[in-house]
C-alpha cells in the first residue's frame, strides 16, 4: 500500500511517466490493476509516438506545480498518489509541496549539463510527444513557433531553424536540486511561522499551519534521466522504495524482468552512437538526418565549434520582459535607442566578428544557412576542418 505522496519532478522528455509506472507496478497492492505493458507502439495524438509509456494513464496529468495545487484543492484526494510535476529548478517547488504535505517524498529527474544529454531530452519531446507543441502554439503565439502538423514535422526546415534559434522551447533543462537554496527557503519559512506565532498566536498556530521546520532527510531522491533508460533503473527503484518508506509492500521482480523492453523501445538512444560517430568521422548517418529536431542539435553543435552562442527561448523571453522597463530607463540618460532594443528583440546568435573569416560564419551572418539542408552545411564544415589540418 502506498503510504506517502510521491512527487516526480521533471520537464517533458525525461521519461517521468515510465518512472511512475515502474513504481506503480512494484506496489504489491496495485499490481493487479496496473497495465503490464505501458509502451506505446503506434503514433497517435492521444498516446504520443512509438516508445512513450502513456498507455499507463496518469491521473492527474503531467502538470506544473501551479496547476497541481488547484487540482488538489478541487479534487481533495484522500489516498496517497504519484504526481508528475512539470517544472525545473525544483528547490522552490519542493518547498511549496512541503508546506502542506509533511510526509511527502520527491524524485528529481535531471540531466548533466553537457551537449549530449540535453539534446537527447529535447529530441524526445519533439519525436515522442510532439503533440504538446500544438498546445504551445496557442499558449505562446508570439514565440514564432511554426504552424505545422507536429505529428508529421520530421522534414520541416522551419521547425529545425526555430529550435536552433530558440534552444529549449517548451522543455527545460533540469539539474540536481540545489539543497542550499532549499535549506534557505525552509529556514525562512520556519522564521516566518515562529515570529507570526509569537506575536499573533490566535492567527498562526499548529491548528492550521505546519509550524515545525521541515526535515528533508530521506525525502529527496535524484535520478539521472539516462539511468531510466539503462539497466540501472530496477535497482534504483528498489533503493528508493526501501529508503523512502513510501510503499509498505513492494516487489520489483516484474520491473526487473520487463525493463529491457522499455530500453529497447527508446529509439532516440541512437542519438548517442550517431553523434559520437559524427564527432569522429564527420559522417551524417540516417538517424541524424531523420527529423528536424535531431538535425537542429547537429547544426547547433556545428555552430558551437565556431564559438557561436545560440540564445535560449527563456533568455529571449526574459530579455523581452525586461527590455521595455530598461529602454525607458536608459533613454532618459542616453537619448534614442535602437528599435530592436526597445522592442526586446535579440539577434539570432551571439558571436565574435572573427567568424566572418569562415564559410560557416558567412552563412550565419547572411542567414543563408536557414535554407540549406544539413548535409550541405556539414560538407562546408567538414571542408573547413580539413583545411585547418
Could you walk me through the main structural features you see in this protein, from its secondary elements to its overall organization?
The chain has 389 residues and is mainly alpha-helical. The chain folds into 2 domains: 6-111 and 174-265, Rossmann fold, CATH 3.40.50; 280-388, no CATH class. The protein is built from 16 helices and 6 strands. The protein has helices at 16-26, 65-75, 91-98, 117-128, 132-139, 157-165, 179-199, 225-228, 233-244, 253-264, 270-281, 292-304, 313-334, 339-342, 359-366, 374-388; strands at residues 6-9, 82-85, 105-110, 220-224, 309-310, 349-350. The strands form 2 sheets. The chain has a 4-stranded parallel sheet. Strands 5-6 form a two-stranded antiparallel ribbon. Helix 3 runs parallel beside helix 7, helix 6 (157-165) packs across helix 12 and helix 12 runs parallel beside helix 16. The longest helix has 22 residues, at 313-334. The radius of gyration is 24 Å and the shape is globular.
Which outline best applies?
globular
Give the oligomer, counting copies of the same chain as homo and different chains as hetero.
single chain
What kind of sheet is the major sheet? 4 strands, parallel
Strand ordering within the main sheet: 2-1-3-4
Ordered list of secondary-structure elements with their pairings:
Blueprint: E1 6-9, H1 16-26, H2 65-75, E2 82-85, H3 91-98, E3 105-110, H4 117-128, H5 132-139, H6 157-165, H7 179-199, E4 220-224, H8 225-228, H9 233-244, H10 253-264, H11 270-281, H12 292-304, E5 309-310, H13 313-334, H14 339-342, E6 349-350, H15 359-366, H16 374-388
